[in-house]
Specification:
Elements lengths: L2 E4 L2 E3 L8 E3 L4 E3 L2 E6 L5 E3 L3 E9 L5 E7 L7 E8 L5 E5 L11 E10 L7 E3 L4 E4 L1 E6 L6 E3 L3 E9 L4 E7 L15 E2 L3 E5 L11 E6 L10 E3 L4 E3 L1 E6 L12 E8 L4 E7 L4 E9 L4 E4 L2
Parallel strand pairs: 6-13, 15-22
Antiparallel strand pairs: 1-4, 2-3, 5-7, 7-10, 8-9, 8-11, 11-12, 11-13, 14-16, 16-19, 17-18, 17-20, 20-21, 23-24, 24-27, 25-26
Length: 295
């Protein structure tokens, strides 16, 4: 309280000595606190550090405590048990793994600041709710593995801070501008890896991305998932024949066989007899996957 011994006296301006009255008992003038951040709409990741800010009216307010309510009503989680209410009117909060269960969204969270001495009279909470999400970081593909090849099975890998039992995985062909439907057929267990057959999409464009999201939030808010840096998908050719056991004979027609992975289009073929490559097929369609040539 700013003051605990306050009384008010009212008197007539033209006869103050005879016409007046005073409060029957003393009362308190209380300080006022106002939470300014988080105040609604923010998204905090578990393990991240975020500001809690406030303003106050009344310099004799004393110390405050700061708590938060995962469900927006029961402020039973302590951020700071006691600290000065004065300048800089701010503290940092590293969000711990507070949860209502791995399958429950934490999208109704609020912060409350209250006076240590007069918590019932001097307090304030966030005007609207904010969200706490697990912190998902995709670790593969990474900058050292940013070229993937059509039809190859690769392991998308990630780590998670916070309780999260299920995830969805998305693929973007334009640097995260759009994600489409999940690439996993059903909710994926959050075990840190997912085997993905690289699609014949967005070839040679260095703006493909993968994003792993908490199943219960998916793409909204965007902070509920972690995404890769841009990577490139390329087509490739797998030679089948000739191989080490083949022995083509001079003058005979021989089937050169290969498997195109992805939209390869037309190909050229050349051979090397030890003195460099010589082209002997030009602009051949890859659809049949082979071509005939006499050695």
């Amino acid at each position: 309280a700013i003051s605990g011994m306050v009384k008010i006296k009212v008197f007539a301006a033209n006869d103050p000595a005879n016409v007046s009255d005073v409060s029957n008992a003393t009362f308190k003038i209380m300080a006022k606190v106002n939470v300014t951040e988080p105040d609604g709409g923010e998204v905090f990741k578990i393990g991240g550090t975020y500001p809690v800010n406030w303003t106050r009216s009344g310099t004799a307010m004393g110390n405050i405590s700061i708590k938060f309510a995962p469900n927006g009503t029961n402020f039973n989680q302590t951020i700071v048990s006691s600290m000065s209410s004065g300048s800089p009117y701010s503290t940092s909060w590293t969000v711990n793994n507070t949860t209502l269960g791995p399958s429950v969204k934490l999208d109704a969270v609020k912060v409350k600041i209250e006076s240590i001495d007069y918590p019932a009279e001097t307090n304030d909470s966030s005007n609207a709710s904010f969200t706490i999400v697990p912190n998902i970081t995709v670790t593969w593909p990474d900058p050292g593995n940013n070229t993937l090849y059509v039809d190859q099975n690769v392991s998308i890998q990630w780590t998670t801070q916070g309780d999260c039992d299920l995830v969805n995985i998305y693929f973007s062909q334009n640097g995260g501008g759009a994600w489409g439907e999940p690439i996993n057929a059903e909710a994926e267990a959050n075990d840190g890896c997912y085997t993905w057959k690289v699609p014949n999409l967005n070839l040679q464009q260095a703006d493909s991305k993968v994003k792993v999201c908490n199943y219960y939030y998916n793409l909204t808010p965007e902070e509920a998932g972690g995404e890769t840096l841009n990577f490139t998908i390329k087509q490739w050719i797998d030679m089948v024949h000739p191989n080490a056991t083949d022995k083509p004979q001079v003058g005979q027609s021989y089937s050169i066989q290969f498997v195109p992975h992805g939209s390869v289009g037309y190909v050229n073929a050349s051979y090397n007899n030890g003195s460099g490559y010589l082209e002997f097929v030009n602009n051949t369609d890859t659809t049949p996957g082979d071509t005939n040539k006499k050695p």
